[in-house]
Amino acid sequence: MSRRGPDTVSLDVPSLCCDLKSAVMQLQGSSPIQGTEELLCAAKQLVAVLEQPFDRMARLAKAPVGHAVLRTAINIGLFEQFYAGINHAEGLAARCGVEKTLLVRLMNVLVSEGVFEQYGPQQYKSTLSSQHMTLPGFRAVVRGLAETADIMPHLPDYLASIQYRNPSENKPGLFGFAKRSELSMFEWLEQNPEKLQVFQEFQSAKEEMLDTSFESLLRELIESTPPVKKLSSDEESFQTDTVLLCDVGGGRGTALRSVSTSIPKLSTFGRTITQDLRSVVESIEPCPEWEAMPYDFFEPQPVKGAYIYMLRDVLHNWSDTACLSILSNIIEAMGPKSQLLILDAVLPETCAPQFMTYIDIQMMQFGGMERTESHWRHLLFQVGLEVESIQVRNTTGLESMIRVKKI
Ligand SMILES: C[S@@+](CC[C@H](N)C(=O)[O-])C[C@H]1O[C@@H](n2cnc3c(N)ncnc32)[C@H](O)[C@@H]1O
C-alpha cells in the first residue's frame, strides 16, 4: 500500500475502502503487529479524506486539551481508583478528592478520546488504554512525554527568535529557551535529579514497550563475534579484556540488560560496557554481567577496538556538527574488526509517518533531528564511514538499524 499524506490524497473513497478491505484480509495472514499497522494506516488514510478541513484544524489546535486532562487524571489518582472497583462519577469524585461536576467534565474528554467508555450517565467502562494507564512502564512513558509537551508551546516564539533558521544549537536551543536556562537539556537534567529520573525511566520504559526485533539482531551480531563463536564451540570460558559491545550514550544499560539475559554467561566471552554521563552512570545498579562507565562522548573514546560500538537513540538528539564529533571519537577508537551500529530513525523521503514527523520536531529541543537515508549517508561519508546495510524495523521506521563500516 502506498503511503499518502492527507493533503495529497485524492478524494477516492472507494479505492481507499478497497485498501482497507485488503488490509483486513492481510491481517489474517501476517504477524499481529505488522497486520495491525497496515490496517491502521489504511484506516487513517480514509479518515484523512473524510475529515473536513475545519475538523482537522480544530483537532490539531485542541490536542493539548486531551493531554492536559490525561495528566490531571493521573495526578488525582483516577486510574487507581477506577481499578479499585469504582466506575461511577459520584464514587470516583469522592475517592479522587475532586468536585463531581469537574470529574464528569474530565471524564467526558477521556471518553471522547477512547481512554474510557461510557455505558450510562456518569458510568464508565475500562478500555485497553485505561488498563495500560495502571502499568508503571506505560505511566513512565506518559510522564516523559508530558515533559516534552511543556516545551512545545514555546516553539513558535523560539523559531521567530532565531529568524526561522533550522535549529541546530544544542545550547540553549528550544529547551533552554523554554526553561529560560543557558544549559542544554542534558546539562539541565544533570542538575535536576528528579527530572533526570523521569527521563531515564521514560527511556527504559519506552524500550520495554517496543517490540524486540532488534534485540534478536543484536544478539546475533554479538554471537557472531570471534570470541563468542570460538568459545561457544570449545565450550571453554575464561576472563578476557576483549570488548564485545560498547554502548555509547547507553543510558542505564537497558540494551545490555536484555542482551546479557539472552546470551548466557556473556561476561565469560568478553566485556560489554554502557557509557553515559556520570550522573546517569551513578544511578545504575551494579551488574556482574556488564559494566557502566562514565564518559562524555565529545571526548576521545577510551575503549579501543571493541567488536561493536553502538549508538542507539543518540544521534537524533544532536545537530550534524555534533554528530560528526561524536562519530569521529568512535572512529578513532575502532580497530580493524570493529563495526558501528546506529539504531535511530530513518525518515522516509516522502510522506513520513506522522509519529516520526512529530518526533523530528520534538528533537528541536536539543538542536537534533530525524534523518532520511540520504541524509544519513551524506553525514556518515563526511567522517569516512559508509552504510553497509539498513534494516527498518516496522512501518513507523522509528528505530532502524544502520550497520556502518569505515570506507
Ligand atoms: C535518548 S537517550 C538514549 C539512551 C540509550 N541509548 C537507549 O537507547 O535507551 C540519550 C542518552 O545520551 C546520553 N548523553 C547525552 N549527552 C551525553 C554525552 N555528552 N556523553 C555521553 N552520553 C550522553 C544521555 O544521558 C542519554 O542517556
From TrEMBL:
It comes from the Eukaryota. Keywords: Methyltransferase, S-adenosyl-L-methionine, Transferase. One of its GO terms (molecular function) is protein dimerization activity. This is S-adenosyl-L-methionine-dependent methyltransferase. The keyword Methyltransferase applies. Residues 243-384 form the O-methyltransferase C-terminal domain. The lineage of its organism: Eukaryota, Fungi, Dikarya, Ascomycota, Pezizomycotina. The keyword Transcription does not apply. Residues 67-130 form the O-methyltransferase dimerisation domain. One of its GO terms (biological process) is methylation. PANTHER family: O-METHYLTRANSFERASE (AFU_ORTHOLOGUE AFUA_2G17820)-RELATED (PTHR43712:SF11), PUTATIVE (AFU_ORTHOLOGUE AFUA_4G14580)-RELATED (PTHR43712). The active site is at H316 (proton acceptor).
